[in-house]
From TrEMBL:
Residues 112-235 form the N-end rule aminoacyl transferase C-terminal domain. Its main location: cytoplasm. The keyword Disulfide bond does not apply. GO terms for cellular component: cytoplasm. The gene is bpt. It comes from Vreelandella titanicae. Its EC number is 2.3.2.29. This is Aspartate/glutamate leucyltransferase. GO terms for molecular function: arginyl-tRNA--protein transferase activity; leucyl-tRNA--protein transferase activity. It catalyses: N-terminal L-aspartyl-[protein] + L-leucyl-tRNA(Leu) = N-terminal L-leucyl-L-aspartyl-[protein] + tRNA(Leu) + H(+); N-terminal L-glutamyl-[protein] + L-leucyl-tRNA(Leu) = N-terminal L-leucyl-L-glutamyl-[protein] + tRNA(Leu) + H(+). Functions in the N-end rule pathway of protein degradation where it conjugates Leu from its aminoacyl-tRNA to the N-termini of proteins containing an N-terminal aspartate or glutamate.
């Protein structure tokens, strides 16, 4: 995204709240989501401004949690120049030295969908993304915008992983990663490897941050984000170091 892209002031945008629904992360909790008006496309400038305020993208929608009496979902990002891989992450990086990475537009491909559908069935059959469908995949991870990309991971010309991400003017935003599931490939920790690759790509592009979405301290599935230290957390309208 270009820093010369005209910005619309956030105060001029319209937003909508969903009705309360079951929280996907904390059992027994209700969640409410704040959405940018669906008539507003997530264009550069608007997207850049809202990402700094903790908004994420899903398909053509920009959203963030807006739950009454709960602020468990915290936006986190990695200041990439300060990041130094720990021992485990260095091992994962070396273990995947034979992975070939390619960056492509976020367009639909049957090979991507097949990998995604198998991943959802094997890893998230108890979640709200099950059962997978082509329409679900298209509306979630495909977008014909210059900032939307897919990072393909190949092992011996076999597609073993895909990471969807956006390029903002102040960083990359990791959207979603899915990969092949098997006893052999599980040892590669492809999810962690994808984040390490996006950190390196951020550095190559001289972008200061990698946005990892939301972090909930009480949610076991999100604890992996804590390993990418140092993390910054959005506190109101200000980003500060996460100290634990």
């Amino acid at each position: 995204m270009s820093s010369n892209t005209p910005r619309r002031p956030v105060r001029d945008l319209r937003f909508f709240l969903t009705v309360p629904h079951a929280c996907s992360y904390l059992p027994g909790k209700e969640a409410t989501t704040l959405f940018l008006d669906p008539q507003e496309s997530p264009v550069p400038g608007v997207y850049d401004s809202l990402a700094l305020l903790g908004f994420r993208r899903s398909g053509r929608h920009l959203y963030r949690p807006h739950c009454e009496g709960c602020n468990a979902c915290r936006s986190v990002r990695i200041p990439v120049d300060q990041f130094a891989a720990n021992r485990t992450q260095r091992k994962i990086w070396r273990r995947n030295a034979d992975i070939n990475v390619r960056i492509v537009p976020a367009h639909f491909a049957s090979t991507h969908y097949s990998l995604y559908a198998n991943y959802i069935r094997q890893r998230h059959a108890d979640g709200d993304m099950f059962p997978p469908s082509r329409e679900q995949y298209r509306t979630f991870l495909t977008l014909d915008e210059s900032y939307a990309h897919l990072m393909e991971m190949y092992l011996d010309e076999e597609l073993v992983g895909v990471a969807a991400f956006d390029q903002l003017e102040h960083g990359l935003s990791a959207i979603y990663t899915f990969f092949a599931v098997s006893e052999t490939l599980d040892k590669r920790s492809l999810g962690t490897f994808a984040i390490l690759q996006l950190i390196e790509l951020s550095r190559e592009k001289a972008l200061p941050h990698l946005y990892l979405g939301y972090w909930i301290e009480e949610c076991r599935k999100m604890r992996y984000k804590q390993a990418f230290a140092p993390l910054e957390i959005l506190d109101g309208r200000h980003w500060r170091p996460l100290i634990r």
